[in-house]
Specification:
Length: 344
């Protein structure tokens, strides 16, 4: 049986009133007597009447909804960021529509078109690993759709951005390995064009430079799907451990790469795996199942989601065009076994 929502016409028929009278009563119109308003509101509550959100959005030119595009909800960082997004959005009267790109630029475009067709009031976006061309976002932004980028951002659109201090986090993770006695430090990272890849690679290089350790191109492995494809991960890790001058440690640049690296090493020669130290960007506690000594950099994902949402709602609700935008850079934390060290 097809679900049929209750309409104003149903209320009018039941009460013997005109639809215009019921409509004015529901929106507290001054033309309606207090008694008529009371009768309509009591009946609407009794039958659990809910206004049609599509009709309301057409009338108000607002849907009270926010679109979110991330690579994968199962990623611990993004699941925590989404919790932060929802905590602000729902308390501000907005619904959240979440989509996943699965690191596909094509799927990202499809998701964007779907959200735009739903007339969302604004977008929160973290770019996919495949995304080089951001014209699909720029077109909507130029037409006035508020967009805030977080984590994986672009400099080609002038708007608010919320990121972690990727350079400092990568620097400190690499420096930790150096201070632990490592000198042949490999770097496992995502697509070369991503903002987080560039910033974390720069932090890794700077730590090597500080301690006069030569940078080696062969020690850097790019996984263009950001760790979502385990075969790609295993090829990258195997190419490192098969080098003549084998790395004594690996710094992994994101959540999926860190856990994927641990899995790949576990499947390789156990003696080799146990000899390689790992640090990585990860918000997952599951890494302790693979390596209790893993040192990691944790991003304030929940806070990033909250700040990005607050900035977006300010854009949506601003009475005047916003021309002053900001990039918020949040500190990360180093998790050394069970010890937390702030990274500023």
């Amino acid at each position: 049986m097809k679900f049929e929502p209750i309409t104003i016409k149903d209320i009018a028929k039941a009460l013997g009133l005109s639809t215009s009278t019921v409509s004015r009563a529901l929106r507290d119109g001054y033309e309606i007597s207090a008694e008529t308003r009371r009768i309509v509101l009591e009946y609407a509550e009794k039958i659990n009447y809910q206004p049609n959100p599509i009709a309301l959005s057409l009338k108000e030119r607002r849907s009270h909804s926010i679109g979110v595009i991330v690579c994968e909800i199962a990623n611990n960082f993004f699941s925590q960021a989404i919790n932060g997004i929802e905590s602000i959005a729902y308390n501000s009267g907005y619904h959240v529509i979440i989509t996943q790109s699965h690191e596909s630029a094509g799927r990202e475009v499809i998701n964007l078109k779907h959200l735009a067709s739903r007339s969302v009031d604004g977008l929160l976006v973290s770019l996919s690993s495949e995304t080089n061309d951001i014209s699909h976002f720029k077109e909507l932004h130029d037409k006035g759709l508020p967009i805030v980028f977080f984590d994986r951002v672009t400099n080609d659109i002038y708007t608010h951005k919320v990121i972690a201090n990727n350079f400092k986090g990568a620097f400190d993770a690499t420096e930790y390995l150096i201070n632990s006695g490592c000198r042949n430090i490999a770097h496992l990272t995502a697509s070369a064009h991503l903002s987080i890849t560039k910033e974390r690679l720069d932090g890794y290089k700077e730590a090597l430079r500080k301690y006069h350790i030569p940078f080696r191109e062969e020690y850097v492995q790019y996984c263009n799907h950001g760790g979502m494809i385990q075969d790609e991960m295993e090829r990258a890790v195997n190419s490192l451990i098969e080098l003549e001058n084998q790395p004594d440690s690996i710094f992994a640049a994101n959540d999926k790469l860190t856990t994927g690296c641990l899995l790949a090493l576990k499947k390789s020669d156990p003696a080799v795996a146990s000899s390689i130290k790992i640090t990585g960007f990860t918000n997952s506690n599951l890494t302790e199942l693979f390596a209790t000594s893993l040192t990691s950099v944790r991003q304030p994902a929940f806070e990033m989601g909250q700040i990005a949402t607050s900035l977006l709602i300010e854009l949506i609700e601003s009475k005047r065009p916003v021309t002053d935008f900001q990039t918020r850079v949040l500190d990360t934390e180093m998790i050394i076994k069970n010890k937390v060290v702030a990274v500023s």
